[in-house]
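Appendix C: a fully annotated inverse folding record. The material below is reproduced so that readers can follow the format used throughout the book. The structure is listed first as tokens, followed by the designed sequence.
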């Protein structure tokens, strides 16, 4: 990003947010390659020069939004510096859902457009690693890390599908319902993983 003023400047952050929201609205009806800086500037009620003072082009704007969102999600799920990995699923899901619900237009753009597959994959890797790290700590010799990662990937993709469906339905369900749904799924997955990683597990013998 070029010529970006200090992040502490509230006016700068406000302008960037206006640009990002306008872009998300345009992405709801157009492909990224057909969006011009002129129409984006008009929708965000800014001058073209203002756009170029923050971003070099439309693709860079999209990349910035995606990176910013991923960093926000990472700050929620990454291990606590004192207590280590956060294994309180309900608390984590609550923070994640609140984060997403407060950025509806952005997440609808990132989760429902075919051009955003890269973002979907980034989410999968982020949460897959979170779950894998939790269960690797008590992994018996009979179960490989590969097996755990495969199971984590299955679970994570299911959870992301729920969030994606929520976005596609314009977030009609309440955040509380989504948190509850994710929590129920997580409890069942947790039971499965404890069964698989138990010392006397026959999981690896089934393959």
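Designed amino acids, in order:
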């Amino acid at each position: 990003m070029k010529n970006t003023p200090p992040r502490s400047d509230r006016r700068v952050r406000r302008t960037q947010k206006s640009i990002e929201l306008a872009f998300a609205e345009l992405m709801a009806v157009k492909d990224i390659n057909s969006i011009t800086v002129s129409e984006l500037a008009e929708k965000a009620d800014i001058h073209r020069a203002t756009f170029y003072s923050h971003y070099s082009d439309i693709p860079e704007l999209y990349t910035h939004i995606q990176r910013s969102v991923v960093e926000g999600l990472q700050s929620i799920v990454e291990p606590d510096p004192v207590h280590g990995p956060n294994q309180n699923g309900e608390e984590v899901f609550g923070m994640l859902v609140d984060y997403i619900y407060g950025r509806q237009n952005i997440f609808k753009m990132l989760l429902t457009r075919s051009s955003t597959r890269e973002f979907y994959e980034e989410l999968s890797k982020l949460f897959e690693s979170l779950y894998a790290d939790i269960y690797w700590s008590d992994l018996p010799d009979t179960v490989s890390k590969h097996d755990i990662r495969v199971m984590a990937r299955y679970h994570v993709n299911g959870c992301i599908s729920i969030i994606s469906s929520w976005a596609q339905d314009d977030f009609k369900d309440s955040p509380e319902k989504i948190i509850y749904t994710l929590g129920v799924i997580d409890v069942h997955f947790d039971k499965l993983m404890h069964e698989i990683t138990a010392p006397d597990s026959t999981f690896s013998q089934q393959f």
